[in-house]
């Protein structure tokens, strides 16, 4: 059996099949590779002596490869990359990291439980008959009605064809971190429809890496056309295999209005911007170094879709609770299992002496030793919120109060009874709502409490009628 197994292993290696050994040692006995597996995988000399010390690294490499195979590489769409006039290649786009959202709602028939298809029909307002022809739209121009079909209007509004069009190249130093507004898209060439796309893409990819340039292109739908940047990524290979694939990242560049400089905003209101001292910068850097996560990977946390926690804990809890309710309804479960949320802050870790000391030093350097954060935030928050609310309400009431002719409304309610001038409930003001009456009393800083009759009387008294 040993000779047969060794022969089959040798035949498999001749066919290009590799055999990986992951040794598991007992508590009091180390795994002996020389008994059988050294001949199986062809170890001798220095390779045999270094096999056990490097076993842990091979196990980590295997976990990385398995993690990569767990995530399927599904292309989002195929786009055409127009490089020059008459020259274009095909690219496949892949989504890297996207937020998980609940699935779309599907309406079902209450009897058959089958999906319901919604249909829309147009009915003539004059005859009540169904309109068979597609609807038309028109635009008046020089006393003529120019008719358009829905397809023609869509073509008129079309700004971009959905293709990726190259505009030029810029140095990588011009691309800043804050230019990346949303998750980028990874692009890779495809030869399925346009033969030679891979060769041209490789030549462009190598030139961009060598010259340290990124490509600026025009891309987007008819509703949101925008400029994008194509940043080339070189392949990274280690002993365990490929770490980063070669390709390009499509980064969505912002418009000028999308970038708001905080320095300019504060300089207009407060004058000089306060700057941090060297001691504050040093304390902040020490705190960041303490709370930095080593070897962080998004794969260390479970998918929020398959986690079930309380609705009041985190923002993603709404999604997790949604799927928990769906599961409970589908399986007729009375109770939902409670699962810890792995994305919550590590309170025990944050309470460690090193982190607590660094945090306290940073707070002292910024706010001083006798700073009470809770009391100041409570007082400042209540005062600022109330003042802002009063100011907004007063300005809104002042603007809306100008739309009414209050003297005329008050004069319309004047009547004569026994030659004595008196005022009864003003019918013109009575037609207004309580909210409309409060526009006047708020704008003139009068008391806003009371019923409708009290507000009308207060308005008449203020106007001297």
From TrEMBL:
Alphabetized SMART domains for the sequence: Ku78 (SM00559)
Domain of life, per lineage: Eukaryota
Residue span(s) of domain Ku: 127-270
Keyword Transport among record annotations: no
GO molecular function, one term: hydrolase activity
Main localization, broad class: nucleus
GO annotations of cellular component type: Ku70:Ku80 complex
Spans traversing the lipid bilayer: 79-97
One Pfam short name: Ku_C
Keyword Secreted: no
Keywords: ATP-binding, DNA damage, DNA recombination, DNA repair, DNA-binding, Helicase, Hydrolase, Membrane, Nucleotide-binding, Nucleus, Transmembrane, Transmembrane helix
Cellular localisation: Nucleus
Gene Ontology process terms (BP): DNA recombination; double-strand break repair via nonhomologous end joining; telomere maintenance
Cleaved signal peptide residues: none
PANTHER family: KU AUTOANTIGEN DNA HELICASE (PTHR12604), X-RAY REPAIR CROSS-COMPLEMENTING PROTEIN 6 (PTHR12604:SF2)
Family: Belongs to the ku70 family.
Name listed for the protein in its UniProt record: Ku domain-containing protein
């Amino acid at each position: 059996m040993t000779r047969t197994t060794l022969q089959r292993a040798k035949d498999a290696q001749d066919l290009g099949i590799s055999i990986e050994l992951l040794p598991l040692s007992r508590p009091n006995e180390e795994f002996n590779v020389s008994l059988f597996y050294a001949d199986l995988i062809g170890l001798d000399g220095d390779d045999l002596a270094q096999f056990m010390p490097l076993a842990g690294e091979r196990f980590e490499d295997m976990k990385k490869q398995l993690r990569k195979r767990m995530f399927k590489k599904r292309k989002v769409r195929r786009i055409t990359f127009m490089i020059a006039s008459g020259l274009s290649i095909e690219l496949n786009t892949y989504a890297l990291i996207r937020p998980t959202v609940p699935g779309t709602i599907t309406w079902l028939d209450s009897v058959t439980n089958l999906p319901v298809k919604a249909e829309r029909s147009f009915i003539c307002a004059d005859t009540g008959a169904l309109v068979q022809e597609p609807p038309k739209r028109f635009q008046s121009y020089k006393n003529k009605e120019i008719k358009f079909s829905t397809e023609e209007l869509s073509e008129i509004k079309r700004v971009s064809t959905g293709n990726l069009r190259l505009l030029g190249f810029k140095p990588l130093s011009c691309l800043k971190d804050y230019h990346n507004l949303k998750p980028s898209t990874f692009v890779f060439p495809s030869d399925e429809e346009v033969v030679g796309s891979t060769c041209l893409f490789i030549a462009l990819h190598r030139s961009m890496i060598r010259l340290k340039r990124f490509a600026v292109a025009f891309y987007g739908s008819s509703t949101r056309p925008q400029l994008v940047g194509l940043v080339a990524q070189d392949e990274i290979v280690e002993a365990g295999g490929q770490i980063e694939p070669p390709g390009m990242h499509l980064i969505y560049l912002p418009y000028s209005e999308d970038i708001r400089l905080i320095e300019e905003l504060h300089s207009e209101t407060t004058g000089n911007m306060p700057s941090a001292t060297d001691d504050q910068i040093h304390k902040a850097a020490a705190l960041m170094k303490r709370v930095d996560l080593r070897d962080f990977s998004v794969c260390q946390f479970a998918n929020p879709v398959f986690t079930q926690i309380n609705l009041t804990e985190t923002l993603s809890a709404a999604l997790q609770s949604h799927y928990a309710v769906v599961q409970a309804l589908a399986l007729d479960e009375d109770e939902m299992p409670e699962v810890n949320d792995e994305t919550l802050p590590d309170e025990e870790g944050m309470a460690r002496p090193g982190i607590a000391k660094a945090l306290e030093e940073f707070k002292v350097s910024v706010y001083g030793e006798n700073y009470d954060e809770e009391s100041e935030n409570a007082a400042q928050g209540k005062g600022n919120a109330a003042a802002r609310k009063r100011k907004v309400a007063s300005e809104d009431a002042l603007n809306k109060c100008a739309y009414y002719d209050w003297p005329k409304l008050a004069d319309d309610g004047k009547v004569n009874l026994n030659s004595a001038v008196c005022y009864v409930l003003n019918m013109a003001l009575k037609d207004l709502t309580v909210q409309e009456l409060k526009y006047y009393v708020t704008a003139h800083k009068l008391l806003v409490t009371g019923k409708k009759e009290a507000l009308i009387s207060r308005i008449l008294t203020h106007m001297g009628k």
